[in-house]
Design goal:
The chain is built from eight helices and ten strands. The chain is globular, with a radius of gyration of 19 Å.
Length: 302
């Protein structure tokens, strides 16, 4: 499935070729598809390894920062995070860097894998508090660590406005886009966040949260790792059921302004996803629709 104009196709024979050339000790291990997101294609290698290949040159940059920073962050975090064990180099057949990680056992977060959503929200809040409290180790909001979600909502207004217009065209009356735009614009006039910059995972949606025994177990896919203001980190709680969202809010003690900015970030990512992936990635568009419905329902209740 090709999602981007500059995407480099990946298949199992290509991965096997890369392994034979660069990781001969692993080249004959069983290899099977392990999912694909908007930025990477993944294959499970044997029982204990995961191969991640970026879809585009832009997303290849995210692999480099993960290879650099995850080994330093992992010892400081209580929950498992991806551990890189090989940095793949570009070849003629695949001209981008790629990587191999230790496999982390766990289930994708969802109604079949989480027992208590309130407890899950509190656990997620604890994981976020720990990450945000981790020493920056000299990292600053520059270069690949300046992901837009750690910055200002106002800097995104122009392209989010275009995305809202696309949603009106694509969705018709399915969603109340006028209310979504009102929530977005109300957040733009709030004071800019004053909290100090922290480490941000950047994309803590359910597919990047692994559950085990009904509880939060691991945080995966740090492709959006950055340094910045924490508001956007909270946006993905609208992908979780209400009890998780409420316990998350309570556990972190977030004020109303932070919550409204987080909701605006959730709106932004949802409408941008629908706009960009409308013709190419229906499953992701469905995730974005569900997020926007949750935002509208939550706004109606509060």
């Amino acid at each position: 499935m090709t999602l981007h104009e500059n995407e480099i196709p990946v298949d199992q024979p290509l991965v096997r070729t890369l392994l034979k050339a660069q990781c001969p000790d692993w080249a004959d291990l069983p290899l099977s598809p392990a999912g694909a997101g908007t930025d990477n294609v993944m294959y499970r290698l044997g029982d204990n390894l995961l191969v991640r290949l970026p879809r585009t040159p832009d997303t290849a940059r995210s692999i480099r920062k993960q290879l650099d920073w995850l080994p330093r962050l992992a010892p400081l975090l209580s929950r498992p995070v991806p551990a890189p064990v090989h940095a793949g180099t570009p070849t003629g057949g695949f001209p981008l860097i790629w990587s191999v990680y230790r496999w982390i056992d766990g289930d994708q977060t969802g109604p079949d894998t989480v027992r208590d959503w309130g407890a899950f929200g509190a656990d997620l809040a604890a994981a976020v508090r720990e990450l945000h409290g981790t020493d920056l180790m000299g990292a600053t909001r520059t270069g690949d660590l300046s992901w837009y979600r750690g910055g200002s909502l106002r800097e995104c207004d122009q392209w989010i406005g275009r995305s809202l217009a696309d949603c009106r065209t694509n969705l018709g009356t399915e969603l109340d886009v006028d209310t979504l735009e009102r929530l977005w614009r109300a957040a733009l006039v709030l004071p800019e966040p004053s909290a100090p910059h922290v480490w941000l995972h950047g994309d803590l949606k359910p597919t990047n949260l692994l559950a085990r025994d009904g509880k939060l177990h691991a945080l995966i896919d740090f492709g959006c790792l950055s340094v910045g203001s924490p508001d956007a980190e909270h946006s993905t709680v609208w992908d979780l059921p209400g009890p998780a969202r409420e316990s998350y809010w309570d556990a972190l003690g977030l004020d109303d302004a932070t919550w409204h900015r987080a909701r605006a970030w959730a709106t932004a990512v949802g409408v941008a996803g629908i706009s960009y992936y409308w013709d190419t990635y229906p499953a992701f568009v469905a995730e974005c629709r569900a997020r926007l419905r949750a935002i509208l329902a939550d706004a109606a209740e509060h």
